[in-house]
Amino acid sequence: MAAETPAAGGVHIVLARFKEEVTPERLDHLIRGFGSLVNLVPSMKAFNWGTDNMHQGFTHVFESTFESTEGVKEYIEHPAHVEFANEFLPVLEKTLIIDYKPTIVNNS
């Protein structure tokens, strides 16, 4: 039987499809800006991103991990994140944002 254990930390996922007019250079700038938040928001521990296989019309996925669920809240309210979001969100055609506390499943 699998045992479940709450994991430490929190996860913030952003699924995105950018507007057609977003150039590759602008996209690169935005991704670098998103990644730079890990150096500006103390509770943010890691940032990963990749391209999606077009599921549900999304093209990119961004994952940020945090030391705690409270850290996710701090990130959302942090001035550096607010400033970045004001640049990032207007160029999205479609987005889905998910915040969750992970659970570890141990198959023992």
From TrEMBL:
Gene3D superfamilies: 3.30.70.100. SUPFAM superfamilies: Dimeric alpha+beta barrel. PROSITE patterns: S_R_A_B_BARREL. Residues 10-100 form the Stress-response A/B barrel domain. GO terms for biological process: pollen tube adhesion. InterPro entries: Dabb, Dimeric_a/b-barrel, HS1/DABB1-like. Homodimer. This is Stress-response A/B barrel domain-containing protein. It comes from Oryza meridionalis.
